[in-house]
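sorry to bug you again but im stuck and you know this stuff better than me. theres a chain ive been looking at and ive put its sequence and its fold in token form underneath. id like you to explain what the token line says about the fold, in plain words if possible. anything you notice is useful, everything is just below.
___
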Amino acid sequence: MIGAVLPALGETMRLSGVWQGLLGASALIGLFFGSILLGQVADVIERQKLYLYDFVLIAVASAAQFWAHSPLALFLLRLAIGFGLGADYAVGPTLLSEFVPGRLRGVLLGSLTVLWAVGYVLANIAGTYIPINGTTAYWLLASGAVPALLVLLRIGIPESPSWLAARGRAAEAARIRRTYLGQSEATAADVEAAAAAQPPVTASSSPAVRRPRPGSVSSSTAPRCCPTSPSNTFMPQILATLNISGADNQNLVLNLALLLGGVIGLWPVQRLGRRPFTIGTFAILTLCPGAMAMLSDGSSAALMVPFLDLTFVMAGASTITQVYPAELFPTALRGSGVGFLNGTSRVASAIGTFVLPVSLSHFGAGWSMGWMALVLLLGTVVSLAWAPETRDTLTAEDLHH
């Protein structure tokens, strides 16, 4: 929602380009700290507790934005929202990955990104078609508390049985497996005993196992986040800077393309494998802003084609960001690992979100699209060199299933 209301806030608060960039990136900054710090906490205390309390924080901070009438107050509240989101970025995929078998991991973990796209599109449509002024901007910001409260329906979701077993709480783990996974008491006990007796799963012990370096995934996903997050946040401003006519309707088309791309992207991330999916989408994403840079003085129709392609492929490519991290780490370290990779990739998102409005105002759309293409080209090269294949990784959860 922040991207939609920033133009109105810019007038009422007299925001500079720096403040617009800080407010646009504020949640991403908070997300960085929340992912890294609370991801480690999730490996020490129960995952389920963070999975609930993070959205209590998000709901309260979202509602409080209604009274944030200074840039600093709004910035701090959005930091708090990002901090709670960071916890969910670390705990959400971690907890889900510890309940699902490997054959469904790509689709189910990728669906977290698709559902993010649903919320993003709804917020963007509301921001586009509701007349925004100094008053409605605050109502729209505070409306984020409504879905945050709905998410609290997750109360009662059980603790990860894999985490409980790793902490020596086998009886609790077996009870959850009986209740929620339909295993008999004897089967649940046998599963826990077999998992405990299983030697450490390493690449040398099984050809189906990969334990690639986490830095390789962080290095290959960060270049995607740097251009794509700001292009989502500042989509209306990009359209206006490019002088694309009928910007409101074009914005709606782009948002629908984003949602459709996310849904369709679930199939190739599952079927093609993680490495070819990453490399292929990076290559396509590199071409799109490059074409926009060359066509920046062209017609609206010519500019919309690569912008539409960028939005569609970007949404599909984003599904991998929830899949890769959960497949890299064993149960005991998964919260920390997922939090670290999500947090570090969002550093690039925050940098891009801060830089883009400054770049648009000082250098125009052509040069701005140009540096986005260069960053994505770097991601393509890094992915070719380092992106691992993790689709066939065996985890403790697969052994249980």
Summary: The domain at 2-400 is CATH 1.20.1250.20 (Growth Hormone; Chain: A;). The mean pLDDT is 80. Residues 331-386 form the longest helix (56 residues). Residues 217 and 387 are 6 Å apart (CA to CA).
